[in-house]
C-alpha cells in the first residue's frame, strides 16, 4: 500500500496510473490495482482471484492463467510497487536525506489505502513464503535506492569511511514500522524527525562503520 481527490504518497504508485504498453500491460495494471484495493479493504486471507478479475473487469481465465494464486498476485503487486517508486532525495546533507526518507515512510503508512495495504502484505508475509520473499525484495530495492544518500555523505566527509549504507537506511524505517505494526501509534512528523536524527547521529558516531569496538 486512496481517494481520487487525494494525491498518493510520494514513492508509491498511485492507483489507476496509466503506463505505456499493450494489452498485456494494461491487463496487468488493472489486475494489480484491483488486487491492491482488495488487500487494503479485506486483507490477504480474503484475496480471491475471481473477485480481483471482477474488479479489474478482465476474464477470470486470464487472472488464473497468469497469476494462479493470491500469493503470486501479492508478489507481483510488490514487484510493481518497487518498480514505480520514486528516486531517493538529494538534499545535500545526510540528515536531510534521511529525513526525506522517514517522511516518505510516514506518509505511506498513514495514507488510508496504502497503510492498510502494507499491513495486509506484512501480515501475509508471516504465513506465506512467496509473499515474504516478495516483500523482502521490495525492501531490498527501496533500501538500495536510498543507500546512495549514505554513500554520498561518506564521500562528502559527513560520515566515516566504511559506513554500512544499507544499515543506516534500515535504521530510519525500522522504528517507524515498529510503531505502526506493533504499537499502533499514530505516526506523525515528530516520529519521522526523531528516526532520521537518531540514525544520522549513530552513523556519524561510527555505529555502522566498524570503527567502534564491540561491547
UniProtKB/TrEMBL annotation:
Biased composition (Pro residues): 1-17
Region (Disordered) residue spans: 1-22
Entry superkingdom: Bacteria
Swiss-Prot/TrEMBL keywords: DNA-binding, Transcription, Transcription regulation
Transmembrane segment boundaries: none
DNA-binding region: 48-67
InterPro entries named among the record's database cross-references: Homeodomain-like_sf (IPR009057), HTH-type_TetR-like_transc_reg (IPR050109), HTH_TetR (IPR001647), Tet_transcr_reg_TetR-rel_C_sf (IPR036271), TetR_C (IPR011075)
Domain HTH tetR-type residue range list: 25-85
Protein name, per record: TetR/AcrR family transcriptional regulator
Lineage: Bacteria, Bacillati, Actinomycetota, Actinomycetes, Kitasatosporales
Amino acid at each position: 500500500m486512496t481517494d481520487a481527490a487525494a494525491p498518493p504518497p510520494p514513492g508509491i504508485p498511485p492507483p489507476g496510473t496509466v503506463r505505456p504498453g499493450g494489452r498485456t500491460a494494461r491487463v496487468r495494471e488493472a489486475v494489480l490495482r484491483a488486487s491492491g484495493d482488495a488487500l487494503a479493504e479485506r486483507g490477504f486471507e480474503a484475496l480471491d482471484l475471481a473477485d480481483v478479475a471482477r474488479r479489474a473487469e478482465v476474464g477470470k481465465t486470464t487472472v488464473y492463467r497468469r497469476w494462479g494464486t493470491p500469493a503470486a498476485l501479492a508478489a507481483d503487486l510488490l514487484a510493481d510497487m518497487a518498480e514505480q517508486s520514486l528516486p531517493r532525495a538529494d538534499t545535500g546533507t545526510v540528515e536531510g536525506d534521511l529525513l526525506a526518507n522517514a517522511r516518505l515512510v510516514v506518509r505511506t503508512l498513514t495514507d488510508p489505502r496504502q497503510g492498510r495495504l502494507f499491513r495486509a502484505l506484512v501480515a501475509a508475509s508471516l504465513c506465506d513464503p512467496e509473499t515474504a520473499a516478495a516483500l523482502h525484495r521490495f525492501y531490498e530495492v527501496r533500501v538500495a535506492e536510498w543507500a546512495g544518500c549514505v554513500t554520498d555523505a561518506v564521500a562528502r566527509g559527513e560520515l566515516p569511511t566504511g559506513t554500512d549504507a544499507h544499515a543506516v537506511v534500515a535504521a530510519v524505517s525500522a522504528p517507524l514500522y515498529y510503531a505502526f505494526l506493533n504499537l499502533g501509534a499514530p505516526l506523525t512528523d515528530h516520529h519521522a524527525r526523531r528516526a532520521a536524527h537518531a540514525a544520522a547521529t549513530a552513523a556519524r558516531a561510527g555505529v555502522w562503520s566498524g570503527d567502534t569496538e564491540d561491547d
